[in-house]
Amino acid sequence: MGAAVLALLMYRGYGALAGIVAACLAGALAGLFTGVLHTFSRIPALLSGILTMICLYSINLRVMGRPNISLSENLGHRTVFVLLRDAFPRVPEVYLRFIFLFLLVVLVKVMVDLFLQTEVGLSIRATGDNETLVATQGIDPNCMKLIGISLSNALVALAGAMFAQYQGFVDINMGIGMVISGLASVIVGEVLLRGRTIFMATLQVVLGSVVYRLATAIALNWGYNIGFKPYDLKLFTGLLVIVILSFPILKEKLGRVK
Amino acid sequence: MLRLERVNKYFFRNSLDERWTIRNLTLQVQEGDFVTVVGSNGAGKTTLLNLISGAYFPDEGRIVIDELDVTELPTHRRALYLGRVFQNTSQGTAPSLTIEENLAIAYLKGKPKGIRMALNERMRAIFRDKLAEIGLGLEKRLKDRVGLLSGGQRQALALLMATLAKPKILLLDEHTANLDPKTAEIIMELTARLVGENHLTTLMVTHNLQDALSFGNRTLMMDEGEVVLDVAGEERKKMTIQELLERFTLLRHKKFAEDRVLLSSS
Predict the structure, then answer these.
(1) Which of B70, B105, B159, B170 is best to mutate for the A interface (most A CBs within 10 A)?
(2) How many CB pairs under 8 A join A and B?
(3) CATH of the domain at B182
(4) Which of A102, A105, B11, B260 could form a disulfide with B19 if both were Cys (CB 3.0 to 4.6 A apart)?
(5) Nearest Cα residue in chain B from A196
(6) In whole angstroms, what is the distance from residue A226 CA to residue A234 CA?
């Protein structure tokens, strides 16, 4: 959704920043839709998300008007990366991209950390922890869920918009399997880092997704030595998530045998 | 203060499994009353509290708190008038949050939530004082996650959270039932103190008949969704557990049956 809205705006001649802002708003709106499915229609959370995504597939096609849009500079599109390159012409582009994305991630992490410590942020966390308590303390759990899902989906859209600019094009299929990749990233992060504070939790997510992407890049680049083909990637991700999710139960069962 | 008018509640209504859990119940609780509620299994004690707190809605009748009709209000909209502690020691607190974060939720009850930091030093000082009064040493553990605490400590914290915003009515649902006798005693003392200090109108469901008679100023006995016995004043002061059970048998032509009561009164 984020990438599609960004593409539309840039295609229509708006700047990259306007595209990013609009993408985030559209993402929040999609999140709100998921939230309403979950809170009002009482559809389970994961299914609500899947339903929204299947609806979005068609909506994205309508937004873009065709399955893919190029954001190439040759077509006059100036992505944030092009803007950056022009602003700092002496810094090599590879470093520039890295530094910019690193700073962006740090900024988002700090903002999320701070938000989760505000009154609303605390209420959202408490809702995830104990809904009954939250209601008896005068907070509407559904309202907190809607705020939480909207904000997180705005972040997802931001990611989509940035990724589209990074790769220079938007494709209708770029979001497929992203839920599982995200899940894998979070799990990898939790395995790598311990700790339950907010600071550690967001660090887990950031580090997890970087390590996950590194692992897939390694598999794609050098995996052919052991017969790994690019089209095996989804299988690899799926198996990774399955193994890690089954791990606690396997450990318990094996522990009992001993 | 609290008034229930001809309240009826059915479960699985219009099905083969229909159960009439609260039957034409009318109840008036005065301001400052500390009412204890006893009854056999399935008598409707917890359903009564769930109706008052808004977890369930009555099929018929009205519920009025301080002249305000709350019958149709969802839990979070009537929460300001109510504080509640549950039997399950993990229900009254948020286990992944720290002690200070839990208390902040209770402290901010009824205030609009904004994008301000939820905690500050002034609040922490208040929390430390309140926790020190409980006397369990929790004031030194503000940043510990509540999941690390024992059942008794969690229940003490839940009590503090339920009373922090000074509700009009405190609902206690067998809040000492899952604790060992020694801890249960400590929690009951704390309950009596917090109720006294804050002048709270209280409704306490308990399976402990001794507690039911020694705490509070009025005792209700429930059976099959009705209040069958309502004692207060001099009559109650002189009453023993034995008399209470005999009165029940006389009224209902059956024995007061609850495993836990039988065990604890033997």
Answers:
(1) B105
(2) 92
(3) 3.40.50.300
(4) B11
(5) B96
(6) 17
**Tokens coding A184:** 């894998």
Is any Cβ of chain A less than 8 angstroms from the Cβ of B192?
no
* Residue ending a domain, choose from A152, A172, A192: A172
Domain that holds residue B184: 2-96+149-265
Pick from B95, B97, B113: which is nearest to A119 by CB?
B113
Contact B175, B49 (CB under 8 A): no
Token duo for residue B159: 């009590």
Across the interface, do A137 and B109 touch by the CB < 8 Å criterion?
Answer: yes
On whether the CB atoms of residues B46 and B207 are closer than 8 A, the answer is no
* Alpha carbons B74 and B84: distance in angstroms, whole number: 15
Provide ipTM, 2 decimals. Answer: 0.87
Q: pTM of the prediction? A: 0.88
Contacts of A251 (CB under 8 A, 6+ apart): none
Residue A249: Cβ-neighbour burial (10 angstroms; 0-12, 13-18, 19+): exposed
The tens-digit pLDDT sequence of chain A (258 residues) is: 788 898 888 888 888 999 999 999 999 999 999 999 999 999 999 899 999 999 999 999 999 998 989 998 888 888 999 999 999 999 898 999 999 999 999 999 999 999 999 999 999 999 999 999 999 999 999 999 999 999 999 999 999 999 999 999 999 988 888 888 888 898 889 888 888 889 999 999 999 999 988 988 888 888 778 887 878 888 888 888 888 778 778 877 877 665
Q: B201: helix, coil or strand?
A: strand
